[in-house]
Design goal:
It is found in: Membrane. Pfam families: AA_permease. Keywords: Membrane, Transmembrane, Transmembrane helix. It is a multi-pass membrane protein. InterPro entries: AA-permease/SLC12A_dom, APC_superfamily. This protein starts with 12 loop residues before the first helix and ends in a 21-residue tail after the last helix. The chain has one domain: Amino acid/polyamine transporter I (Up-down Bundle), CATH 1.20.1740.10. It is globular and about 65 Å long. Helix 6 runs antiparallel to helix 14. By secondary structure, it is mostly helical.
């Protein structure tokens, strides 16, 4: 469903890029650093490089689809219009996987770091604390203001810059080198391990496509948004590669006291007690803010789907009479997040990436369907930009999907089958088009 045409076009390129980076939450590189090091067998920087290449091809495809459909869009919108309504619904179902389960992963990562700082407190206590506090806040409809988000974004960038600077100073003081291929390649390293790490590393990039929701508020969106999407994916990739590169030079070993909080151990090693406290504060602030907004977005997306009769209205379209918040949806997201008590960081992030890779694959295919098949544009540039690049992007995304954690693949496949059964039920055996989903989580929803 498209947003009202009355939205004012005021956003420039720099503002859109900053929004995208804030949504990306750059400190996420530290949240899953140890997991990627472990899975990639010590080649986290290489895994991030491959992930960035895959995301750049996909970012190009998002840019091309923004030109084709200059409205507040998503992978669901592009797939539905370019390929098929039923395929579009399944892509929307995959996106729903991200929305619903991302809060779980965010809170699990935050709890892992707090457990590392305060080992006497069991991790399940921190998980429950995150869930309870954010759920209560979202039930009252309290959201983080734009100014607070800006401050938190600046704080994250400062912590990352300090981590890199202190890491390099630590290497210089200890007689280490700043230049090495060790974080990218090493004797006995395995490309399959690097791919497995890259499939998790892509979790750090989730959200680079969120700026497509600003299409109707951006000046010259057909020119501005494609540039912004590429810049966000590239800038995020550079930050992730540099941070993981320095981290591996400082701590080349694959052994950590707790792999889920490996970056905290490195921060303590290079900056002592004070910087480790600042670093922990940065991680927790980033995870708390991300979890708060992720739960709010997921609850409001479920509300929109209930309002549009994609999900049962009585439950999902219900609003609290006083606070005007989607009460049941907030509670549902909080309840689902309890799965964090039994899941690892690797499995939870891989599970979310199943939905992301599925959606990214179909965005790339949508470019080919729209420009080459439907529009019949087949110049030399079209075969390169509208066929070769998106085909490479789709291949990369599907390849990374196949390299996800096995448990995540099983859970993702089960989710897809559930969506297919529900689609068959709604469309009476695929005989009619499914209802159109409102994939903009804040469209027309009281907050």
């Amino acid at each position: 469903m498209e947003r009202a045409s009355s939205l004012r076009r005021t956003l420039r390129l720099s503002q859109v890029v900053f929004f995208g980076l804030a949504y990306l939450a750059p400190m996420v590189v530290f949240a899953i650093y140890g997991t990627i090091v472990e899975v990639s067998k010590g080649l986290a920087a290489s895994s991030y490089l491959i992930a960035m290449i895959a995301m750049m091809f996909t970012a190009l495809s998002y840019g091309e689809m923004v030109k084709a459909y200059p409205v507040s869009g998503s992978s669901y919108t592009y797939t539905r219009r370019s390929l098929n309504a039923h395929v579009g619904f399944m892509v929307g179902w995959a996106i729903l996987l991200d929305y619903v389960f991302i809060p779980m992963a965010i809170w699990l990562i935050g709890a892992s770091y707090l457990n590392a700082a305060f080992p006497g407190v069991p991790i399940w206590v921190w998980v429950l604390a995150f869930i309870i506090v954010t759920t209560v806040i979202n039930l009252f409809g309290i959201e983080l203001g734009a100014n607070i988000n800006v401050l938190m974004m600046v704080f994250q960038l400062l912590v990352i810059a300090l981590f890199v600077a202190l890491g390099l100073a630590h290497l210089a003081h200890g007689g280490g080198t700043w230049i090495s291929l060790r974080p990218f390649a090493a004797p006995g390293s395995s490309f399959s391990a690097v791919l497995a790490g890259a499939s998790i590393a892509c979790y750090s990039f989730l959200g680079f496509d969120a700026i497509t929701t600003l299409t109707e508020e951006t000046l010259e969106p057909k020119r501005t948004l494609p540039k912004a999407i590429l810049l966000v994916a590239f800038a995020g990739g550079v930050i992730f590669i540099v941070a993981s590169y320095v981290g591996q030079l400082v701590h080349p070993s694959l052994t950590f006291h707790n792999v889920n909080s490996a970056a905290f151990e490195i921060a303590s090693e290079i900056g002592g007690t004070f910087f480790s406290a600042v670093f922990l504060a940065g991680i927790i602030v980033a995870q708390f803010a991300s979890g708060l907004s992720a739960q709010a977005s997921a609850a409001r997306l479920l509300y929109a789907m209930g309002r549009d009769a994609v999900l049962p209205k009585r439950t999902f379209a219900y609003l609290h009479p006083r606070f005007r918040t989607p009460l049941f949806n907030v509670l549902i997201i909080g309840t689902i997040a309890l799965m964090a008590l039994w899941m690892s960081v690797e499995t939870s992030t891989s599970f979310i990436n199943f939905g992301a890779f599925s959606a990214f694959t179909f965005v790339n295919l949508s470019v080919i369907a729209h420009y080459i098949v439907r529009q019949g544009q087949r110049t030399v540039r079209d075969w390169l930009v509208h066929f070769t690049f998106p085909l490479l992007g789709a291949a990369f995304d599907f390849w990374l999907l196949l390299n996800l954690d096995k448990d995540a693949l099983r859970l993702g496949a089960a989710w897809a089958v559930l969506g297919l059964i529900y689609l068959a039920f709604m469309t009476k055996g695929f005989q009619k088009a499914p209802p159109e989903l409102s994939m903009d989580a804040h469209e027309g929803i009281p907050v």
